Each structure stands twice: as C-alpha cells, then as structure tokens.
Amino acid sequence: DNTAQELLERNFSGNVRLLRNNSSAGLPATANKAFDMARGDYIIRLDADDVFAEGSIWKMVEYLDKHDRVAAVYPGYYTLYSDTDKWGSDIWILRADLNDPRRDHHPGCAMIRKKCWNEVKYNESLKANEGFDFYLRFRNKFEIGYIDEPLWWYRRHGKNKTENEALVAAEKEKIIRLNSKLKPIEDILAPIGEYY
What is the 3-state secondary structure (H, E, C) of the chain? Predict the structure, then answer.
C-alpha cells in the first residue's frame, strides 16, 4: 500500500520518524531497530492489525509516572474477530498466564520504560512468540504493572502468526529451553493489589 509515502508527505514536526528496511528483517529485528531509534522515555508496540482505545496511551503514561519502580505496564484487551466484525469481550491477564509458561499469554501493547527495554530486547532468532520470550526474560529483571481495563483490541484473523500451531509450538518449546535457568515464574509475580 502507500502508507510509507503518505507518512513521508506529512509534517510531523520531527516527532515521528519512518523506519524502512531494504528487505524483510523479521518482526523482532525491526522492532528492536525501531525502539533503538526512539528518543522518548517510554516505548510501545501496536501491531498493524490491532487498535488502541481512545485515551489508552495517556492512561499507561500516567501509571508509569505514578509507579517509579514499575518498568512496564500492560492493559487488558478485547478480541476483535475480523472475519465476522464481532467485537468480543475477552480480557486476558498476564499474571494468570505466566503461572504456566506453556500457555499463551498476551501482554500486548505494553508500555515499557526505554531504559529497561535496552537491557532485554527481542530475541531476533525467533520466528514466533517473541513477546512470550521477551516477557519471560523481562519479568525476571523488572516489575510489570497491569491496568485492569481493556485499552486495545487484538484482531484475530486467519493470517495471525499464532494460527500456525506447529510454528508456535516449536518456538515456544525453544523459548522454554532457552529460559530454563530463569527464576521460577511463581517467584517473580507482582503481589496481588498492584493493579491500577
């Protein structure tokens, strides 16, 4: 599509920079590169097929501004089923999913302090589940907060990488092996009551 050209034609007063790869570098490498270029105190990733709720970014900024010891915060989310345009109401919570590292979890749209991001980053060798790997490693070093409110929509459709069950399973097993020396998940969960 013409998204890149349209962005180049707009005047963002230097607040937005466009990153273009000459060839496909993969999501983890591209995200790492983009976050390395970021100049702000906080970073956040929103995939192209997902949608922020109005005011969501400010709520996460406010949370991090009020909680100095928290390195990242993520909100609940709704599921949007593209094939039916049905707006679901599934809210998933990272705390519950991290109790079992073999289960899917989705701390998507987490806002992260850039200085903390710089210590972990995505594993660029992964073909899927880079977020799962990132948050296992990140949670071992930093505290993560949660806003008990859905602030974005996760779009489910036939082209989601997570629909490729064989790839997801293989990468998840690889991630569990790579992270086998991390502290047990149950030892690093934030105390109950750390919600916004």
Answer: CCHHHHHHHCCCCCCCCCCCCCCCCCHHHHHHHHHHHCCCCEEECCCCCCEECCCHHHHHHHHHHHCCCEEEEEEEEEEEECCCCEECCCCCCHHHHHCCCCCCCCCCCCEEEHHHHCCCCCCCCCCCCHHHHHHHHHHHHCEEEEEEEEEEEEEECCCCHHHCHHHHHHHHHHHHHHCCCCCCHHHCCCCCCCEC
Q: Of 71, 17, 11, 75, whose CA–CA distance to 41 is shortest?
A: 71
pLDDT, averaged per 10 consecutive residues of the chain (196 residues), comes to 76 74 88 93 87 92 96 83 54 43 58 95 89 85 86 72 75 82 53 36
C-alpha distances in Å from residue 163, one per residue of 17, 24, 90, 194 = 32, 21, 18, 32
Q: Are 145 and 63 a contacting pair, CB within 8 Å? A: yes
Q: What is the pTM of this model?
A: 0.77
